[in-house]
What we know:
The complex is a heterodimer.
Chain A: H1 8-34, H2 42-60, H3 63-87, H4 92-110, H5 136-140, H6 145-163, H7 165-175, H8 177-182, H9 187-213, H10 225-235, H11 240-263, H12 269-289
Chain B: E1 4-15, E2 18-29, E3 33-37, H1 44-51, E4 59-64, E5 67-68, H2 74-79, E6 82-85, H3 97-103, H4 111-124, H5 140-152, E7 158-162, H6 170-185, E8 189-193, H7 197-203, E9 206-211, E10 214-219, H8 226-234, E11 251-260, E12 270-278, E13 282-286, H9 293-301, E14 311-313, E15 316-317, H10 323-329, E16 331-334, H11 349-361, E17 364-365, E18 368-369, H12 371-384, H13 401-413, E19 419-423, H14 431-446, E20 450-454, H15 458-464, E21 467-472, E22 475-476, E23 480-481, H16 487-506
Helix pairs in contact in B: 3-5, 11-12, 11-13, 12-13, 13-14
Amino acid sequence: MDLSAINPALLLASLLVAATPIMxxxxxxxxxxxxxxxxxxxxxxxxxxxxxxxxxxxxxGSPALGFLFAALGGAALSLLFALLTQVALANQVASxxxxxxFGLGLSSLLGQGYVGLKPPSSPKLDIxxxxxxxxxxTVLFSHDIIVYLGIALVAAVWATLKYxxxxxxxxxxxxxxxxxxxxxxxxxxxxxxxxxxGGACAGLGGxxxxxxxxxxxxxxxxxxxxxxxxxxxxxxxxxxxxxxxGAWLFGGITVLQLNLQxxxxxxxxxxxxxxxxxxxxxxxxxxxxxxxxxxxxxGRIFHASS
Amino acid sequence: MTxxxxxxxxxxxxxxxVVANDTVSFEIKTGEVHALLxxxxxxxxxxxxxxxxxxxxxxxSMVMNGEAFAPPEPRAARASGVAMVFQHFxxxxxxDVAENIALxxxxxxxxxxxxxxxxxxxxxxxxxxxxxxxxxDLSAGERQRVEIIRCLLQDPKLLIMxxxxxxxxxxxxxxxxxxxxxxxxxxxxxxxxxxKLEEIRALCDHATILRLGKNVGTCIPAETxxxxxxxxxxxxxxxxxxxxxxTLGDVVLDISxxxxxxxxxxGTALKNVHMRLRAGEVLGIGGVAGNGQDxxxxxxxxxxxxxxxxLKLKGEPIGRLAPNARRALGLLTAPEERLGHAAAPNxxxxxxxxxxxxxxxxxxxxxxxxxxxxxxxxEEIIEKFDVRTPGPDNAARSLSGGNLxxxxxxxxxxxxxxxxxxxxxxxxxxxxxxxxIRQAILDLAAGGTAVIVxxxxxxxxMEVADNFAALxxxxxxxxxxxxxxxxxEIGLMMGGAHGMEVAHVDA
Lengths: 306, 507
């Protein structure tokens, strides 16, 4: 066992990378849930985004176009969920689970010819001077652009929810859809748009895994990241900055346990691999003791009956 | 001041199975308080929803200030100067006062300016409000203030208020009326919906009365008596239930030494209750809420078991029997809470009929349900008790309070009980439905059934009961004939010695 082999700068840097996919997917799901919709299909939308982005990147050779198509793919799949729950008024839990299963199946079908290929690597944002600062340069300023985009997205969602009218209306719809309808807001339209935003974010998060983190395509490669993103929203008590914190916490433990495995710590590998999930569950239990308020209309079906 | 603000001409709106509004026409003048009167289900809510743009009329037209007015959505109605305070508040608990108000405005100013205006307007009208408090923490009266301020900030020409006083204390009602008078002095017209007739007489200049979706008359409330208005609403002379005055038979229910701890944390235990009920008797049990009324019902229905000998039905001990066994012997109950206790909200009326009618009506056979028989039972209840619903397949929650109460009472009455126990049979029910429920109770007693009516409405008990007893802290007073009982005596029965001690300490 040699703990000195763990480089703290690299550890923190890879923490940011590990946290990014669940952070982006989580912030998207947060917006969906603040609008009062519980979409359990995050995993399915992530893996669909992962394969759509991977295919687009292989075909066009451009990672930027890849991420664009990943977002479109995730949003397109979420539109199916929106159709089921907002138009056909189907149960949200069942529809979300179905969406995950469907997304996993669809992605394996689409990805059949893409196993083993390697996508062109995404450019790293190399800021001169800043990335040369010892320690901080490695930790903060030597990542790909999506890492920064993810953090910017959290900030943008926070500011939109807090300071803009769009954000206020979205929160109002999630809080009391009957009252929002009585005041003349288009509940279904607002929710469909929120669901599509959530789908696009999940797609981006998935593509980050297949294009940058791994980068290659294997079936089921999101491996539960969508479920972690869902748990993250509850962990964050529906507050954007806490999604970022939670993602870093989970990412940190994931990276740390990998490093500990590499360093040969005498704890069974299985327990180390389990640890991020166990700690997520423990933190969730502790957090839910706090009377964190879920949006009051979350998961309830809205029907504009006169 | 006397110009016409809004003319409503022949508005009609039909829903499947019911015409909510049938060619309704009337006028609202600038600066007046116009009352819209009618029983539950008369079409008042649908009418104001059409004015506010939430519902589109099938036919008819509206003219506002000389121009055609047909708002496709609430936004358009608000732009024309129509504002509405809802019966069930349209507020968002998790948001603060300023945010709630901003949501009801077309072009809200920045939050800081809005907060300042809320302070200013709320103080000007005597309704002080802190813009940054969370609405979920406010009292019902304060929440209504939020709604009213939201309307006032848009400089409305017409303010619609749907049952605004049902959640207010008398003091809050006085403040509200002062605010409304101030508004009308400024030229705002108010359309005021209520079925509290004395309030309407105090506040309103004109009244339009709706019955079954039709405009059946107008009156000037200050010059019309409350009884006349009520009869216009109901359409017939208000029936005062009449007792046939049957002679009392043998003792059917004998309660002796009934003691029972309350199953709920804030309930009242029953303490050594004694009572004898004879066939054909109506016993009224009064008392201030929370003195053991709910526990009394639970003990009698069998939801909570008591000592076997504490309850005897025709000499047979039934204290340990479950509800269905008691039903089989002829003891039926109708609890206070209609949705959730007396009826399952999401189940159809047919299914609800089965839930208590199974044993006595034989609605199942070896564990298999007999749907045909059950449906005809539900249809019989609907027909005999004039339950207004498109049919027995509708969910219980889709019925208005009065209609569901008629169904719940009817379901028990038609099972021909030996003893029927009802708790708050006419709570939240309009005048004509209440009268028909009371009549049903009296008819049942005339047929030889013993009835216990638990109620907080003393007038009701005086009307239907032969004997009166009161619950006080879980103890039941001795029953006394209602004839010749004075209000003072009733007060003493309800208060008991304990209440006088408190008064003594206060003095």
